[in-house]
What does this fold into?
Amino acid sequence: MTGLAFLIPIALGMGALGLAAFLWSMKAGQYEDMDGAANRILIDDDGFGEDEA
Amino acid sequence: MNAPAVLHAPGDHALTTSRFTVPGMRCAGCIAKIERELPKTPGVHAARANFSAKRVAITHDPAVDEAVLEQALQTLGFEAQRVVDNPLGSDAKERKQLTRALGVAGFGMMNVMLLSVSIWSGADGATKQLFHWLSALIALPVIAYAGRPFFASAWMALRHRRTNMDVPISIGVILATSLSIYETLTGGDHAYFESAVMLLFFLLAGRALDAEMRTRTRAGIGALLGRMGKSASVIGADGTTRRVLAEALEPGMLVLVAAGEALAADGVVEHGASTLDNAMLTGESLPEAVSVGSLVHAGAINLGAPLHVRLSHVAEDTALAEIARLMDEAGQSRSTYVRIADRASRLYAPVVHTLAALAFIGWMIAGAGWHQSLVIAIAALIITCPCAMGLAVPSAQVVASGALLKRGLLVKDGSALERLAECDIALFDKTGTLTLGEPRPDIAALDAEARAVALGLAQASRHPLSKGLAASLLRAGVEPAAVTNIREVSGEGLTGTWRGLRVALERPDSATTALATRLTIGDESQLISFTDPLRADAAETFRALGQWQISASILSGDRAALVAEVAAQLGLAAEAEASPQAKLAALEALKAAGHRPLMVGDGLNDGPALAAAHASIAPGTASDASQQAADAVFIGEKLMPVAVAIRVARRTMQIVRENFAFSILYNLLAVPLALFGYVTPLIAAIAMSLSSLVVVANSLRLASSAKEPRA
It folds into this structure.
């Protein structure tokens, strides 16, 4: 039963970490432009915007 | 990575951020082009595109004018419009709050469930007590936070002596929590924390989906909004001009209306001659010629030369404002519409609460003692708590609107889908709705050279015929010829020089056909005629509507002869030359006769009718006001989305009814169990998640509902 003393805080801590990560990602605006994020991966910017082929 | 390189460039001075809607942003290339090229404009530090909202945020020096930025976007090939309002509207805020609550509820549910599973699998004695206490510790703050949307809404309803779906939900959650706290304090057997948190999680999922659907389509529609006369250049006594907002204009002011600009107030032309595009106001496709003394109205777009207009009616007195007022009044009736979920809860809540009360009284009479009686009554409330019911409507509507979105139809909210399903008669505007609303030239007779020259000329003008010609030629893959010295004479046409030859696009001499232009290259000239063609699938759409027992007719503001021609072609009844007031009256008459009319229209003159109709649809090319008044907006050249919308809306309501039927069946089975005291927290948890899963799975059947039906 002493194992519980470790396991429960660990389980709760991991859950809280996940929640904190979710709330942070929301605050950082990661869900603002879902379609844009999907499209941005297609942008080819090797030339760093010098010229457009 | 292709994240924005710099958001805040180094520098001591403060930068400001302006936002523009850019409806033309359609692909990754557009994002790249805007974010790469805009910072090359002097004074612009960075640009960040939001593809979903079709907006661009530009960080720039305060000294840079918005007109400069608009121009810069224009040169990149994007129509842009400054967004004045706060980008985080109340809708977005509500959605964010719901998502956050959903995250918190999810966290709580997982952790409480972890502890509950241990209890169910046999933890007892001190361990069980400890787990109950831990569950309470997690669940209480989670319920307090995640339950707020429901508690607030239930409280509002009760204060107005009404009831809605949130009242039984709140009562159920609060009672379950209170009972669980009591059980924990007294070292009892059953705590229902996981049921309470799970209930909130499922219901929040439904709510969040509903909010997501609304913001997604609102963003789409907001991006489509075009330009209206929001300000004007007023000419002062000393001849200088200054921009004045539309609200601040006064009668008697002299304003300069540049080519391409929309009028912001009604007035009389005092100097100059030009043509005006009145399509927004009257629905007529043909530009109207105006000269000194002509009466002009707000909302008209100046196509030709600059005009000096002496204002006569401003702000609230313009013909445009009158239409807006009519729309406002006509829209009132819609706010009294009661959505199906609330109608269901009006029947449902009293039944469930009476049952719980009866269970309590019954067990008291049977001598079970008040503690056991209360536990049973609350268990009955928890198990009947409208978990599946709360998901029945939003899950179906979200799936349906997603399916419709793929077919080019944006539905504004769930209530719109419900009303669309109830329509039994349809009225269509002609110009811009049945027809494409833009003149299409007949370019088959032109050779490659003529096409290139025509495009070179047409690109330089804002006249609707030129724009239509340029668009068609571009679609045909024509490269424009390098025409120089292009000059536009209002009411006459365009002239220019190409390879030393005089080339022109001019008004034809004969007044035989109004929609035509004469292309001249050197000595040769030929006539290009224009038509405003019907949408290709119009007839097919009416057949589909007929299948759904919806009779359609035309209600147009255009001239009788033109309307009769279209009506004959489609075999529909028609009413022509209807003013906005007459259209509104026609709608009201239909409603008084017990019909539920669907209005499909685009012009501002359709606005009041769109607002008054039981449900309404506007094409994506419609005026701002019409798109705002309509329940749904369809994009593209096809009319079919209108018929698809009706089909999907009806199918959605069928699925919603199935979901309700399932919820009722589930309650019929679960309630006796609860009433006889057999419901433990474990059974409650299983029953709740099972019923929710069944409802969501049933709603997912709508995913393919907007596809063509199998032949």
